[in-house]
Every structure is written in structure tokens, then in C-alpha cells.
Amino acid sequence: MLEVRDLHVYYGEIHALKGISFDVSAGEIVTLLGNNGAGKTTTLKTLSGLLTPRRGDVRLDGASLLGAPPHGIVASGITHVPEGRRIFNRLTVVENLEMGAYIRSDRGVAPDMERVFGVFPRLKERRTQIAGTLSGGEQQMLAIGRALMAKPRLLLLDEPSMGLAPVLVEQIFETVQTINGQGVTVLLVEQNAAMALSIAMRGYVLETGRIALAGPAAELAGNPDVRRAYLGEA
After folding, report:
1. What would the pLDDT profile of 24-58 be if each residue is shown by its tens digit?
2. How many domains does the chain have?
3. Does 65 share its domain with 169?
4. Same domain, 110 and 173
């Protein structure tokens, strides 16, 4: 489905991604792990067209996405839930969800909104509430719901558990599994490595812009280096 090949991305003279390559197959949950500054968020921003690589290629179903604007990448089937949620604070819940469907002109928008409310019943209860007054967990639900309104085939999730209470973290990850079960492929960036590996099929570990390790999630979870660096074990 998604093929990333020899991707090099710079911030000015800073070489942020140094030739990373990886794949995401249809139907998978794949996680990118790594410490702050490893290049995880840069990778997702490049995949969604917010950053332009200096070298390399990104292909979706064999078609290159290089040079495509962000709205064109959304139209191709990729949506991005950014770190920090980035909802429209002054709009209502419903208006935020409608913004997620801005590229669509079909008649399925209203039924899809009801499906989002089925995944996130709390959003339905707060459908007329101003988004900026929602709790952190509700805002994360809204950010994911907004991305789903574009009917993605591949969902990019950047730190969905950030700043949330443990009970809400579990709920968000259960929801990610539900979304995946409905046919949406997921590429997940997450600091909570244990939780990410518990729901992912495969994973990649980034270190200073390079992929240091890759493999099945269970294999990475059992790797001593991963356990020491990301799972808090001595």
C-alpha cells in the first residue's frame, strides 16, 4: 500500500531524515517508535505533504505522492491526525467534522458523521459544543473523527495519547483497533511504546533520522534494546 524509499528531509541545513525506507501494507497497524527528535513527526509531515523531501520517494498503491499538495494527498486516501490535535477551537464539534469532509461532494457525508458518532458517542452528546471547551480526551476523539470524515484508507496518527489520563489512553487505543477493524490502515507514532506495540502488527525504531530496528511488534517488544530504551526496563 504505502512504500517509503530512501527518504531524506531537511530543516534548513539540519538533516532530519537520513534515507529511511519502510512499507505499510493494507489492513495493518504499523508503529514508528523513537525518542524525541528521532524523526517520527517529520516522517508523518512528509507523508502528508507538509514537508518536501530533498531525495527519495513516497508511493501509495504504486503512484508517487511527491509534489502533491496536502489536499491532494488527502484526496488520494491519506489523512493525518497531528501531534497536539490542532482542532478548530472556535467551531463546534459538528463544524469540525464537516471540515474533515471538505474535499467531498458525495451524499455520504451525513451517514459518515453518524458512523463517527458511533465510534465516539461522547462527541454526539457534545455535537453543538464549541470544540475549544472540550476536554483533552474529547479533543483527541474529535481530531481522529475529523480525519475519518475524509474516508481515509491510511490514517496517520501522531502521539494520540499525549497528555491524556491512563484510562483515556486505553480508550483511544481501543478505538484505533476498532477503526483498523473497519478497514482503515494505520501508521502510528507514539511515545507509549508498550501500548503501541500491543496493538501494532509491525514496528520500526527511528534513531536520529535513521531506522535502527524493524520487525514484528511482538519481536520488538521482546528485544532487550527496545525494552531498555522505550519500555523502561533496566
Report:
1. 999 999 999 998 889 999 999 999 999 999 999 99
2. 2
3. yes
4. no
- Position of cell 484510562? 167
73/165 same-domain check: yes
Per-residue confidence (pLDDT) for residue 145, from 0 to 100: 93
The residue count of the chain comes to 234
* Residue where one domain finishes, among candidates 151, 169, 195: 151
At position 108, the amino acid (one-letter code) is G
Mean pLDDT of 155-180: 88
Indicate the residue among 151, 169, 191 that finishes a domain: 151
Burial class (CB in 10 A: 0-12, 13-18, 19+), 189: buried
Q: Are residues 58 and 170 in the same domain?
A: yes
Expressed as residue numbers, the domain containing 116 is 83-151
Residue written as cell 489520563? 165
CATH number at residue 214: 3.40.50.300
Contact 70, 150 (CB under 8 A): no
- Name the residue among 117, 7, 121 with its Cα closest to residue 59: 7
